[in-house]
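Budget justification aside, the reviewers requested a transparent look at the raw inputs and outputs of the sequence design task funded under Objective 1. We therefore reproduce one unedited record. The lines immediately below are the structure tokens for a 220-residue chain.
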């Protein structure tokens, strides 16, 4: 499998507080990496660095042979906050984001909504959606630009069991397209069937790694 991301001794400091401490890892195409840990362990900070939204204080990050910021057209980021406009329908939301992705080749809102199991003709604004539908709409926003690397912060948050399983099925289909997924979760039991590697962060550092396949190569 090809290596698409490499981190070398990455640290992120805020004054004297270390949000990340000397994290090193290598990510391969077509794999799912699940980040585990308590609140404040550094999971979201790591995702934001991979997305190019934060720069490390120390260490280096490369994505697709360049910096994550330069590779942002190949990266999709789903934050813990939904980043949707509650007063708009799902199609209207995705249409707005399509116009923002001027340098990317986007799928149509209708196509991507159907791919996540939502009816694009639904007239309700997303503010009236269930949590599971909102999460699927957020995932649809990420999938609009057809990213090769998906970074998902708590994609199962506040979902019922049925909605979470639907999300897992969607992510499994995405991974089968040789795309790479890095996600954070507090629900290990949900994400474990999808994971190639389970990485536990403690106080900003990699504490344990469970490699579920031989080809998952993460080095702490």
């Amino acid at each position: 499998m090809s290596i698409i991301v490499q981190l070398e001794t990455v640290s992120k400091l805020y004054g004297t507080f270390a949000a990340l401490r000397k994290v090193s890892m290598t990510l391969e195409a077509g794999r799912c990496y699940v980040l585990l840990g308590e609140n404040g362990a550094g999971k979201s900070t790591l995702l934001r660095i991979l997305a190019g939204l934060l720069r490390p204080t120390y260490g280096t990050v490369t994505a697709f042979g360049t910096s994550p910021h330069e590779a942002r057209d190949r990266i999709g980021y789903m934050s813990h906050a939904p980043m949707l406009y509650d007063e708009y329908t799902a199609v209207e939301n995705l249409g707005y984001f399509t116009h923002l992705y001027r340098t990317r080749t986007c799928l149509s809102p209708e196509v991507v909504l159907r791919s996540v199991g939502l009816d694009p003709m639904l007239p309700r604004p997303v503010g009236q959606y269930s949590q599971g539908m909102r999460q699927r709409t957020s995932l649809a926003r990420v999938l609009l630009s057809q990213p090769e690397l998906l970074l998902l912060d708590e994609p199962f948050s506040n979902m019922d069991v049925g909605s979470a399983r639907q999300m897992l099925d969607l992510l499994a289909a995405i991974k089968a397209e040789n795309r790479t997924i890095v996600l954070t979760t507090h629900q290990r039991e949900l994400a474990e069937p999808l994971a190639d590697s389970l990485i536990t962060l403690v106080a900003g550092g990699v504490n344990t790694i469970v490699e579920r396949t031989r080809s998952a190569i993460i080095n702490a």
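Residues 161-175 form the longest helix (15 residues). DSSP finds six helices and nine strands in the chain. Computational costs for records of this kind are itemized in the attached budget.
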